[in-house]
Design goal:
The structure is a single chain. By secondary structure, the protein is an alpha/beta fold. The protein is built from 25 helices and 17 strands. A 7-stranded mixed β-sheet has the order 7-6-8-9-11-10-15, with helices on both faces. It has a 5-stranded parallel β-sheet with strand order 1-2-3-5-4, sandwiched between helices. A 5-stranded mixed β-sheet has the order 12-14-13-16-17, with helices on both faces. α14 packs parallel to α20. 50% of the residues are buried. About 2% of the residues have low confidence.
């Protein structure tokens, strides 16, 4: 196998043309086999095999810096830098990350996980290079989906002023996770079909060079003008108008063409954008036919492409989707918004039923939030479904545009809590803290599937900003017997005893019930309370509980700093309640990738650890 010859970075440069062709096929075969066992990002990685190989043939690692936007397409890069053996534990606890990690390899220039960041990071590297007087290449790879993010344009605006080389590779597969939308997508569609322009440009340049004495001068003059050759054949050349040289489009699966254009790009003395056309999922028919399904996949059967384990119970996302669609049938003012995550957030069903009331704004969470605010101000009932880790990007818009005006926007915070294999960049463990800081914001979280359905209805009917927080995975089906009507700002007492009161947030219901049962088995009396509302805090309930309990135990899958537990502790202190508070949550740290249950044990969110801590606290109180 040719792949066995790749032991470390730059080994690919030892291969001949025939071996390079074999290597591309072997890499695809390797990725399909490994990801079918571990799960991971398949379609995006299959689409950039030749592109990654060409970059590695062009660059010298680790001296040169290669920055992957989002980073989930870096598997081939990891293979070509000697990390083949790490794929057996890809995205598992203690194993190799599915994203670039500087601590994992010197060849990973920048930790990524969110979109639209690579050009900014690359510009930083370029500035550092110039200030240090160094002479290495800096390349940022960004997808066409990521170009819908505003941060990319802020960076392009700065890149236009560069006086030294900086290569931006636009990996254009007409996809982000879902199919791309909007003006930039249409613009790139035009460029993809501009092969006639490329052929004419080459012919014109060749003809001008042949003019004795004057050809080169005329050609250089044409290149300097805003109305040069590109303007004649491709109207509104966006990148060229920003003084960023545009090269392409080029076939992203033809290594020789890629090498030629990359060598040309390295000679440019300012920012240059290389437009590369790739096919997401290339080489594996199921992924070619359904790239969104294989964007991030669970383990699957290679022959059929079907998941090895089919889900049984509906997920929280599916419950949300079904209820919202039902509400949409009765209320024409309900509209839904996604930031390029139609399938992931469950809004595909709503989109099919109400295409005129569904808005995919692309990878643009900041815009999505203010857009929702505008819809609400205009009399609609907007529901913005977004992953917790991506909602972080829209904090300012949530505060300034939604909550300052007290507008009725529903933020459906999906993938809240520990999400597992995607690791630090995707763990949704900060939202309770930052949402709770915003005036006029209400934050709720359901204990099970039935309360999830009730909370979706409650949120849509609510006349003010509200965030509904729920996790990835199957909706809990326990505690079905507890379904008291939702009252604003009121918690739900499930079991009322004395001494110890366990107060949990949302999907910590199952864990908290186990904690209570184990405490009961050990001989301790324990009440169990479903917080329901993280904000506002049910202070009246806390005061009532303090009369018969000496220990409050809060359990949340969120960082402790600024979280629900800290709010409880703060109120207990300010109200001088005679009760001790133990906060159970995630410490001030980033949580790595791995199985969720294993991660919970690692951070102390498992039954045995909590029970041991609770008993120790209670015994200390009793002296």
């Amino acid at each position: 196998m040719v792949l066995e010859m790749i032991r470390k970075e730059n080994d690919i440069k030892k291969l001949n043309d025939e071996q390079l062709c074999e290597l591309a096929g072997e890499i695809r075969h390797f990725l399909i086999n490994k990801i079918s066992q571990t799960g991971g990002h398949l379609a995006s990685n299959l689409g950039v095999v030749e592109l990654t190989m060409a970059l590695h043939l062009t660059l010298n690692f680790p001296q040169d810096k290669l920055i992957w936007d989002v980073g989930h397409q870096s598997y081939t890069h990891k293979l070509l830098t000697g990390r083949k053996d790490g794929f057996d534990k890809l995205r598992k606890y203690g194993g190799m990350s599915g994203f670039p990690k500087r601590k994992e390899s010197d060849c990973d220039a920048f930790d990524t996980g969110h979109s639209s960041t690579s050009i900014s990071a690359g510009l930083g590297y370029v500035a550092a290079r110039e200030l240090s007087g160094e002479n290495h290449n800096v390349v940022s790879v960004i997808g066409d989906g990521s170009l819908t993010g505003g941060m990319a344009y802020e960076a392009l605006n700065n890149a236009s002023r560069l006086k030294s080389n900086f290569i931006i590779v636009l990996n254009d597969n007409n996809m982000s996770i879902s199919e791309n939308v909007g003006g930039m997508s249409k613009y790139l569609n035009g460029l993809r079909t501009a092969q006639a322009y490329t052929d004419i440009k080459r012919g014109v340049e060749d003809t001008l060079r042949k003019i004795p004495g004057q050809g080169s001068r005329i050609l250089n003059q044409l290149r300097k003008t805003k109305s040069g050759i590109k303007q004649l054949f491709v109207p509104g050349m966006f990148f060229e108008d920003m003084d960023i040289t545009y090269l392409g489009p080029v076939d992203g699966h033809d290594i020789h063409k890629l090498l030629k254009v990359f060598h040309e790009a390295k000679r440019v003395d300012h920012a240059v954008l290389v437009h590369v056309i790739t096919q997401k999922g290339k080489g594996y028919p199921p992924a070619e036919e359904n790239p969104a399904r294989f964007h991030g996949t669970v383990p699957f059967d290679i022959k059929t492409g079907e998941p090895k384990e089919s889900g049984g119970t509906d997920s929280y996302t599916q419950v949300f989707a079904k209820v919202l669609t039902d509400i949409g049938k009765k209320d024409e003012k309900v509209v839904a918004i996604t930031a390029a995550m139609e399938d992931g957030t469950g809004l595909a069903s709503f989109a099919r039923h109400f295409p005129q009331r569904f808005f995919d704004v692309g990878i643009a969470e900041e815009h999505a939030m203010t857009f929702a605010a505008g819809l609400a101000a205009g009399g609609m009932k907007p529901v913005f479904a977004v992953y917790s880790s991506f909602l972080q990007r829209a904090y300012d818009q949530t505060l300034h545009d939604v909550c300052l005006q007290n507008l009725p926007v529903v933020i459906a915070v999906d993938r809240a809590g520990l999400v597992g294999s995607d690791g630090e960049t995707h763990q949704g463990v900060f939202d309770l803290s930052y949402l709770s800081t915003i005036p006029n914001m209400t934050v709720i979280s359901p204990k099970n599937r039935w309360e999830m359905a009730d909370m979706v209805r409650f949120a849509v009917d609510f006349q003010y900003p509200i965030a509904l927080r729920y996790p990835r995975g199957e909706a809990y089906e326990g505690m079905k017997e507890f379904r008291a009507p939702i009252e604003y700002g009121k918690g739900e007492v499930l079991y009322e005893e004395e001494d110890i009161a366990v107060i949990f947030v949302g999907h910590m219901a199952e864990l908290s019930e186990k904690v209570r049962n184990k405490l009961k088995e050990t001989g301790y009396s324990c009440s169990l309370i479903n917080a329901r509302f993280v904000k506002p805090l049910d202070t009246r309930l806390l005061e009532t509980l303090a009369k018969d309990h000496s220990l409050f135990v809060t359990i949340e899958e969120n960082v402790l700093t600024g979280g629900f537990g800290e709010q409880v502790m703060d109120y207990v202190f300010r109200a001088a309640l005679d009760v001790r508070v133990r906060n159970i949550g995630i410490s001030d740290d980033y949580v790595e990738h791995g199985n969720v249950e294993l991660l919970r044990k690692e951070v102390g969110l498992d039954c045995d650890t909590i029970v041991k801590q609770v008993i120790a606290d209670y015994l200390m109180i009793k002296g």
